[in-house]
């Protein structure tokens, strides 16, 4: 008996040669009949519209079936490049006249590979626009679906034998859609039963198809409506299994418990509020109350604080930290860069004043201590902070990745705040929360959630608070794309604008993708732009990109001569970075040429202009963050995105999207559309791996929400899922695959 767990061999049929079998099994990873059924068509050819060859007409879109009669590779001279180019010319016999088809190729190898596929005797479906060449009808680069050799397919294949919608599968070299379509058809005829993961009540309640019908419809639909219904079924199923894994995890976490931090052992927060030099915005007050409530619960808070760049997230976090200190615990603030950690330390100690003067002789007994810990601090410099952190004397600890090291021990870590969360990996956050005895409360903050975070909020795995209003005194930022491909001369105007801002007494940032020519800034490999298939969209290994070294020298020598120019990048010593930032903050520098080290948190109110060179090299959230460095002091900000990306390219679309809105949440959705969501369950953060096969978080938001409520009901009724064994097996399988990936990585 053939079941979904039978080896795929069982349905491949004798006509398929061993080499091809191996390609199906190893190349496509289809080991079982079930794998084959789960290999869904990428699209469908509407064969109902097969064109009769008598009706030929120039410019018309043709779909036709035919047999290759001749197939020759020709070399010709490309007039545009002056180089030899290659073309495969094929004649195809149809049920009407013969047609000529040309397939152009960049290399002889490609042309010859194509000739191999389209050898005489091959039958296929061809789709393309009809043209004529020297008085003969021809198709140029038609889409082709090969359906096996003439003998192989003659019996099965005629215009009528084709279904109305012919499935086109994701393929590998040497395997054609036809091979898979035949195997699937056979499998669906011989399979008695397919396992049904979804209980009947759930299917009924959420209006999803049963498994058997869904498989039939997705592989051999009569109309596209059936495809849609079948897809919804499989998406729902995937969402449900994912939600069950997440739901079980959440319940386990809640069961672990956390210490409630009610803030009744001190008065720091109260006294801090009294001395705050500004009024909290309504949003800050609301989020503050929400966070306080959750800190007071006996299970861990896990909350995302989204808020526009400059919306005042830090003060919300600081108030939460004080609350925890008032409860006798400690709070840690993790920042992604040394520059930002230093800045937080400066501004938080300044805001706290004598409230942070704990430990001083004769000082306020209720005051606490704020410690800074960064990677560049020497061993000797760390001793004091480390012992005050371990003893619990330090209530607030600010730092970079250095906080994650084993030598850092807390007396009672009650709250972890992760600033600019989009810059951290999941492992890094876990390393810090592991330092607490009982699970700590966690607050993560960002203006531009990364795709995975947006995905987690859609899945409901992260509670979200949002600060929408900006504190008074914020001015708008004007963003323009400067298209150097079409308008190279505009670059002069860019530097004139910078000079004008400086003349008005303001300052400017110039950001480059490189430190020195052709070298990457550290951590940059984490931010590759990848498409759905994991291919590089933007080639970041490209040469000739603007570098801090070149640009600062060129500007000082040319368009910005006479201005005070500083440089900043990740490879400078910590003291030098600190010194440069202080000088820029104090107005002793006019222009700061830097890499993306200034991306997050840097706060210089007098800076009004930002010029981004080779802007297509930066991701959407990076661009948005960088732009947030200007317009902070009540003066209108100007952000110029210089690019050589062509109109219509994905890179250019991204820049246009950034120029069109200053709404960070909207932009994070743009980002998600372009980059996919990463893995909602596991570790991968940068959007190139996903446990999601058929789901797209934005498109399927409603399905994911439906699945969440279905999962909650199932878990309430039957936590072990004993009543639904197939579903339980799928949940365990997913849990294990996530766990094993975790083991591999750690
Ligand atoms: P972000 O949300 O981008 O991290 P910050 O927390 O750095 O923003 O806040 C930006 C600036 O706004 C800081 O200088 C901060 O002191 C100031 N700020 C925060 N809240 C208010 C407020 N309610 N009124 C006025 N200024 C505020
Ligand atoms: Mg901030």
Automatic annotation (TrEMBL):
Sequence ranges assigned to domain Helicase ATP-binding in this UniProt record: 294-467
> What are the BP-aspect GO terms?
DNA repair
The record's annotation in InterPro entries points to:
DEAD/DEAH_box_helicase_dom, Helicase_ATP-bd, Helicase_C-like, NA-bd_OB-fold, P-loop_NTPase, RecG/Mfd, RecG_dom3_C
Species: Nocardioides panaciterrulae
- Which keywords does the record carry? ATP-binding, DNA damage, DNA repair, DNA-binding, Helicase, Hydrolase, Nucleotide-binding
Q: Which residues form the Helicase C-terminal domain?
A: 524-696
The EC number(s) attached to this protein equal 3.6.4.12
Q: Give one GO molecular function term.
A: DNA helicase activity
Record-linked Gene3D superfamilies: P-loop containing nucleotide triphosphate hydrolases
Name used for this protein in its record: ATP-dependent DNA helicase RecG
Q: Which SUPFAM superfamilies match?
A: Nucleic acid-binding proteins, P-loop containing nucleoside triphosphate hydrolases
Kindly indicate whether the keyword ATP-binding belongs to this entry.
Answer: yes
Annotated PROSITE patterns: HELICASE_ATP_BIND_1, HELICASE_CTER
One matching Pfam family is DEAD
Q: What class of enzyme is it?
A: hydrolase
- Transferase as UniProt keyword: no
